[in-house]
Fold each of these.
Amino acid sequence: MMRQWLGMRTAGLCLALGFVLMAFAVQAQTVRVTVNGVPITDQQIAERAQLLRIEGQGGNRTQLATEQLIEDQVKLAEAQRIGVSVSDQQVESAFANIASNMRSSSANLTNLLTQNGVNPQALKDRLRAALAWQQVVQQVLRGRIQLSELDLEMQAAQQVTAAMNFDYILKEVLFVIPQGSGISASRRTAEANQYRNRFAGCDAAVDLAIQFTDAAVRDVGRRHATQLPEALARELAGLTVGQISSPRVVDGGVSMMAICEKAEARDLTFLTEQLRQEEGSDALQTEAEAYLQRLMAAANITRR
């Protein structure tokens, strides 16, 4: 009986201590805003402001951080309402993508943020809200966007120039600049021009490339001019089968395009699809902004 009583007293003491620690934590973080009853603390605001700082955001970062956190909470609440959820794995994957775009790793990005006084969780919290909102927009608004196919085709026709009326079969010749090699783009461009001066057609492209260091030939296949960068399309329009474009510095090296086949062909498919994506994205963004403003107006936001 005494042992049972001691056990109950110990459990009660632990519970009371837990409440004291929770109360201390709440006092340590002052609630600045509540959104539909969900608190946003001064610590969250400070961490988001630090993130904005290293991103180069000027102005009143504390105010901007506060507004971002309020919007994030509204987005998350709407996601929860319609049954959208974002897993930790999705957030970590998005975090890793940011690191990859910086040519780094998740661990290095974490260290970079920490060294600059930013809690990595601040970025992950923002990513979670962004991922949730992306799903909300796709689920709720995508079906509302209607575009006129006739208008898209007319716009595409207006953008077509004489240089865009060709169909090609191409090979790319790439003079690679190995990462960390210290080799300059100008040096590789000079070597590419040597290749170009000796170029005798697509059939001999590989044999010629073997005579140069770190030169590769890739079959690009069929491409319509509207699928190519405008400057390249203009240059290729002035070349004939068996000729090769001038060198261009690209990611990873210096590139040239060789024409293996060429035919006149008017095709609006690619331009129309590009316009559809651009206008669809613009219309979707406009709808999403209006949707968010309605949610913000309906939210119970209390500032302290």
Amino acid sequence: MLAEPGGRERKEAGKSMRTVRHVMDWLQGAGQPASSVDGLLAGSADAGLKGVAVAFNASLAVLEKAAAAGANLLVVHEGICYSHDDRAEWSAGSRSAGLKRQWIRQAGLAVYRSHDGPHRRNPDWITEGLVSSLGWGDAVEQVMPAAAIVRLPEPSTARSVAEHIKRKLNVPWLRGIGGLDYRCSRIGIAVGYRGGGSVAVPLYEESGVDLVVAGEGPEWETPEYVRDSLHRGDRRSLLLLGHAASEEPGMRLLAERLQAAVPEIPVHFIEDAYSFTVL
């Protein structure tokens, strides 16, 4: 019996998830639109499944750890070749990407990208993973397709929220702008590249949040909006975690759910090193 997302279960003619294709089917859930970037980036869907590794990104360090753990399938949120679209000429044709693909072939790894699938869940698994990792699962006030709103039990300054995030996610720094020492109670959470104005500004103006916590976004959009808001006397602030730091918790959640769905196959979550150094 194979557990489906959301706790449902379905029988599959006495078979268990023992091929790469079975995991792909589970990850795709109800289906996959033609425009999706999700798909098998390396390896064969019919390969027998020995173990699965899950990570945010397919860095060389993650690939090596996956192989060392005995996994022959790596599920990642982002692509192999340094681009949102691995088919882009500049990325697919780069020497570094070619060497990485050669390493993957020699290691016998299959690599599947699961980006759009978890974002399409209701609620979005990547957002859910971040909110849960921050200990705010019970504080969720509203869930939207591209964001979630949490209400803190006690008002806190944005600066204190930043320290909380650093402890919970084990990240060395965040970027912040706005009224960082003003107390806030309602926070908008927007993972990945959803920190742009199209998502963040309605959170402030329509949903009435005091603080937005996001992965990243164009610096001329939400940061400038917050700066002007502060100049007018509005107590708004913005914290930016970075893309990977905001979405890695969601891939950890995906790994936990996949392990529950395939208890007979070892599933390993691989945490990558923090990318940037503040100079």
Amino acid sequence: MSYLPNSNVLYSLVRNISKIYRHDFGEIQNLHKSNKSITDFTDKIKKRIESIILEDLSDKYGKNGYKIIFINDHLKSDKIWASEIENCFIVNVLEGETNFMRAIPFFAITIAHKKNNIIQNSIICNPITDDIFIAERGIAATHNNIKMKVSEESASEKNILILEDFLISERIQNTTVIEYLRSSEDIRKFGCQSLEMCMIADGIINAYIGYDKNENVISAALLVLRESGGVKNIINSMEQNSKNYFIVSNQKIYDNLLYS
């Protein structure tokens, strides 16, 4: 399958970075058997990857006024966007950092390309499993060159559901959603939001419920989801001063929650 030039640039970049992660993932496994600091080792890897990405994208796009914005799993999302940046690359060099540090092969590199304040294309890569998800606005989303489509399943008792935090089931104040959670027999959490959303886009998982946040932080995964026919909707709390949540799924599931 052919891709846009920008997607080809990002594809080559994450393929090169994946080689580094695969090597260092083996080192992480060895560190668990020693007294050396896994945190320091991980921080050094992230800085090295950030440097590679910054140099590569700045060299190719810096003359066009593009900024490179690095985010991470621990950053307060609302603090990043004090002023909107119309043309940029939004990069998380290690989403699912805790998984990486525990030698669990479920983490990702994510890059979203924003032009004129719209996400045009994105890429998400699990360097260990070599799963690569590419989305191009108005064209398609693919998983290892195969077009993706969300599941059409809507019956809650057959759904596989992911929660960002298992405490959501206790904190959420929306009675319809509570009933949906109670009727869902298979609820999971994998620890890497973008890859979890890609699983929904690929029809493997039916829905994901998480805390509402700035969309820039999950922009790469959202484009994959939307180009696969999925939707992101806000679940408003029934009580004042309670947190709002979001759900990504097919439209049928959300309509059932909204109108049941």
